[in-house]
Every structure is written in structure tokens, then in C-alpha cells.
């Protein structure tokens, strides 16, 4: 007897091979019950399994393949000064464009806030020190991709466009260098976990989809930390790619 797992495995393979592309209609429950000779409940369980994996979703009463744009984050190359200096684009916008994708961001908050512990530790200031935060949601295509909160020492952003919704060409990195400092080093810390209910809602994640925590600390050439970004990324939309020389 055919099990729901066999049906879901067959459909998953067809999706992964591209036979069913993004937004393609899947066979109806009636079609699946006839094709596999199973009860309606078995076919339903197979589809629910794929839904929980984030591969399909219901739209207008039909099961379709869930669009999952998956931009690659080129860990070192993406921060090349040539990408964002001068009239360059913000990092995410430029990186996704090179992959044939579109990206945008929505600002959630611009404010002076007390530095939470992870930020204070990395900026080397006491917990609760007032810092500037830019909270935003980024989208790839029409899907929310990440919740990104960037924190800056107040003295560095005074009078800059980092305090405005539109930071201008090159984004925050370009504005920091306009103050006279020069960025010298970036550290990234990456971990994975299950999302909170708030994060799952904000990123429209199917049940069972994990998220990636990314903590980025940016230093100037003197070693001073000048920005800390706490980002939560949808794991099913994230690929991290690194290529670098092997140190001696």
C-alpha cells in the first residue's frame, strides 16, 4: 500500500527537479487519490507534509509550489568597497541584482535606544548606553527575507543620513566613511534556531521553518567597532557562500 510519505517524496522530487516550478499547480486531492490508489486522508497528509516543509502552500483553494527565491550571500565579496562606495548601491540590493533578483527594504523604526547586551558587548560600551538603531525588513521578490537591526554609536551618526529613512547611494557604509573614518574589518557570527512567533509572522514562515541569526560587527581601520547588525533571516531563503585564501 502506498503511504503518504511515498507520495510526498514523489512530489518533492518533482518540485526539486523543476518539473513543478514556482507557483505551479500541484495535482488535486482527487487526482492524487486516483493516481496512487489511496484514501483522501492519505493524499491530504502528503500535501500537509510538504506544506510544513515550506515547499507548497494553498492559494485560492489549490495547492501550489511556494516561491522560494534563495539569494546567495557572498560573504567576503559582497562587502567590497567598489560595490557601495561613491554612487554604489546598498549591499543587498547590489548583490541580489547580480543574481537576477530584486530586493527592497521597509523601515520599521529609526530611533535612539538603550544598547541591548549583545550590541553593547560588541560596541564595547556599557549596557543601556544610548545608541542609534535602524530597524528594517528586507524583501527578496515579494517575500520577507530578513529582519535587520543596525546599531551605531550616536557620535558617528550625528548629522548623517543614517538618521534618515533613505541613507542614499551606498547605504550606511558609504555614509560612515563620509564622516572621515575608513572601514577596515567585518566579523560575522552565524547560528540557527527556530523562530519566535513574532518572527514567524513577520517573515511569513511555514510551520517548522528555522531562521538564521546573523550578527555583524563592523570595525574601522583603528579597530573601533562602528556598527553592529542583528539580523534574523528566513533559512529557506538563505545560502551563505564563502571563498577566500587559505591563511599561512
Descriptive overview:
With 248 residues, the protein is of the alpha+beta class. It has two domains: 4-65, Orthogonal Bundle (Arc Repressor Mutant, subunit A), CATH 1.10.10; 72-241, Chorismate lyase (3-Layer(aba) Sandwich). Helices cover 29% and strands 32% of the residues. The chain is built from nine helices and ten strands. It has a six-stranded antiparallel beta sheet. The protein has a two-stranded antiparallel sheet with strand order 1-2. A hairpin with a 2-residue loop joins strand 1 and strand 2. Helix 1 crosses helix 3 (40-52) and helix 2 (29-36) crosses helix 3. It is elongated, with a radius of gyration of 22 Å.
Relevant terms:
alpha+beta; 248 residues; Chorismate lyase; 9 helices; two-stranded antiparallel ribbon; Arc Repressor Mutant, subunit A
Amino acid at each position: 500500500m502506498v503511504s503518504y510519505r511515498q507520495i510526498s517524496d514523489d512530489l518533492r522530487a518533482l518540485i526539486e527537479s523543476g518539473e513543478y516550478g514556482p507557483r505551479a499547480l500541484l495535482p488535486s486531492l482527487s487526482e492524487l487519490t486516483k493516481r496512487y490508489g489511496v484514501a483522501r486522508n492519505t493524499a491530504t497528509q502528503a500535501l500537509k507534509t510538504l506544506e510544513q516543509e515550506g515547499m507548497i502552500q494553498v492559494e485560492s483553494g489549490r495547492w501550489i509550489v511556494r516561491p522560494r527565491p534563495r539569494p546567495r550571500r557572498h560573504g567576503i565579496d559582497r562587502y567590497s568597497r567598489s560595490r557601495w562606495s561613491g554612487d554604489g548601491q546598498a549591499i543587498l540590493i547590489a548583490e541580489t541584482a547580480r543574481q537576477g533578483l530584486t530586493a527592497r527594504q521597509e523601515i520599521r523604526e529609526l530611533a535612539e535606544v538603550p544598547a541591548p547586551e549583545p550590541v553593547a558587548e560588541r560596541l564595547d560600551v556599557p549596557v543601556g548606553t544610548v545608541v542609534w538603531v535602524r530597524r528594517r525588513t528586507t524583501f527578496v521578490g515579494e517575500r520577507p527575507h530578513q529582519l535587520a537591526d543596525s546599531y551605531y554609536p550616536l557620535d558617528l551618526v550625528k548629522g548623517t543620513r543614517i538618521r534618515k529613512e533613505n541613507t542614499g547611494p551606498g547605504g550606511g557604509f558609504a555614509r560612515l566613511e563620509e564622516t572621515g573614518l575608513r572601514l577596515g574589518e567585518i566579523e560575522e557570527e552565524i547560528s540557527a534556531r527556530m523562530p519566535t512567533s513574532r518572527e514567524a509572522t513577520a517573515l511569513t514562515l511555514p510551520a517548522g521553518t528555522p531562521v538564521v541569526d546573523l550578527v555583524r560587527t563592523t570595525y574601522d581601520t583603528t579597530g573601533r567597532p562602528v556598527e553592529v547588525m542583528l539580523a534574523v533571516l528566513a533559512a529557506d531563503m538563505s545560502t551563505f557562500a564563502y571563498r577566500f585564501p587559505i591563511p599561512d
